[in-house]
Amino acid sequence: MDIRTLTPAFSVAPQITPGEVAELAAKGIRTVVCNRPDGEGPDQPNFAEIDRACRTAGLEAAYLPVACGTVRDEDAKAFGQLLDGLPKPILAFCQTGARSATLWSLSEAARGRPVAEILGLAEAAGHDMKGVARRIATGGRAPTDTGEVRHEVVVVGGGAAGIAVASSLKARKPDLDVAIIDPADIHYYQPGWTMVGAGVFRPETTERAMASLIPRGVRWIKAAVAAFEPESNAVILDGGRVVKYRRLVVAPGLKLDWHAVDGLAETLGRNGVTSNYRRDLAPYTWELVRGLKQGRAVFTQPPMPIKCAGAPQKAMYLSADNWRDQGRLKDIQIDFFNAGGVLFAVEEYVPALMRYVERYGVGLNFQHSLTRIDGPARTAWFTRTAPDGSKTEVEERFDMIHVVPPQTAPDFVRVSPLADAAGWVDVDPGTLRHRSLEGIYGLGDACNAPNAKTAAAARKQAPVVAHNLLKDMGAIGAADAIYDGYGSCPLTVERGRILLAEFGYGGKLLPSFPAWLIDGTRPSRLAWLLKERVLPFVYWQGMLKGREWLVTPKLAD
């Protein structure tokens, strides 16, 4: 645990887990303060889980969530008042500790502690608060006329899309000055979590140290982004530091909004409530599947867009297949509650999926959005939308429930000048350039291109962005590269067989293999081997290394 002590009474840390609370108590901490809004990251425990662990360990816990990049004077004042009334020593945490250190620095400045002393204490604890000093001196706004750091290309996000595009850039122009901004220590292969939830993959096989994946020659700025100032070609980091760029690539992924479902955050990981959309919960899915002998299993899908639109069904099919193999399927009622109106958006794949729905006896419930959940009571409530638009509330009991949360762009994207009206990075769907801001590009889950949000889509988008960015810089003279909307969704309909859905804009089928080898409209054992053995290798050793196997970008005519 990375605890940074600023004073004997106050320390900060990056995200903690419920399992680390007992260690904090042993170290003498008496109060834990959470400054990170729930749902910022896919592997992030919710505050309710931290609060339960604190109460068990005899500690106090407080929740003062502050969205990254929006530390206001009011937040600092509230933070100072909160600290005054809590038992000490206090540990405050956020994603990296920088937000908590910023709150402390601003609240201490308001108390009259000298700025130099604040900077010295923060620096000794490993947090650069020079941005806070500028903010105090300039009335709350960090100037961006000069950047602390400058790079030709800055990539926001160290996930699949961010690292892939950085690698593609360096593969084309090895001397290009590129930086990646991302605060995470661990990079996750999120497509593998479905397999973890089915007992096929071990959780640890889906993760690597971020430092081991940053492309050679690329600078890693280990920080969270607070805001964008495109008029100044600047990215503002959490804590106030400034990074200037010539070209900007935005690929931060999306936000899982667990709090959009009332009561969900408080019951995740217990009471039969699980989700393969969090790495730490996927093993609990497998635990529930193995342990359910009879009763009712519910699977949910929220309104679009979400990452990997087939994942809610994948969990259902693999669970049902296990119960079938164990002879329990006749004793388990399976229901799928989908906020949408169809089983799958590309109609060519629906007949094969329906055969599995019938095989497993799944009850299909369309136009049902999960709105609240009571874990201890094993009850969920859905809003059902009728064809005439009227809405009614439906109450459903469960013994286990696999929940997929509603999803949005990250907060710092949604409130930025880069976003469209819905909050997504506004890009041209073909070239992936920003529609109105020169020198900015978007790819991956956070952009508004109307494609499926999958790792396969990011793999196809990365070379397109790399090509067009270098063309715009004058490094190459070819025509624009065009993204065709390709995405892939390997639908795990049973253990050992996959329906390999590959499609582009408008639902056009875009198969990678001839039909005699893999017919994507029919379940295939070869497609399962592709998912289980080949795709992880392609991800780690191909996509993230700038090797563009089968995804060389097509150029405009």
Automatic annotation (TrEMBL):
Domain Beta-lactamase hydrolase-like protein phosphatase-like: 2-110
Oxidoreductase keyword on record: yes
Coiled coil: none
Keyword Oxidoreductase among UniProt keywords: yes
A Pfam cross-reference name: Pyr_redox_2
Cofactor: FAD
Entry keywords, A to Z: FAD, Flavoprotein, Oxidoreductase, Quinone, Transit peptide
Entries under Gene3D superfamilies matching the protein: FAD/NAD(P)-binding domain (3.50.50.60), Protein tyrosine phosphatase superfamily (3.90.190.10)
One Gene Ontology molecular-function label: quinone binding
InterPro entries cross-referenced by the UniProt entry: BLH_phosphatase-like (IPR005939), FAD/NAD-bd_sf (IPR036188), FAD/NAD-binding_dom (IPR023753), Prot-tyrosine_phosphatase-like (IPR029021), Sulphide_quinone_reductase (IPR015904)
Superkingdom as given in the UniProt entry: Bacteria
Domain FAD/NAD(P)-binding: 152-270
SUPFAM superfamilies associated with the record: FAD/NAD(P)-binding domain (SSF51905)
GO BP of this protein: sulfide oxidation, using sulfide:quinone oxidoreductase
Protein's name in the database: TIGR01244 family phosphatase
Organism, as annotated: Roseicella aerolata
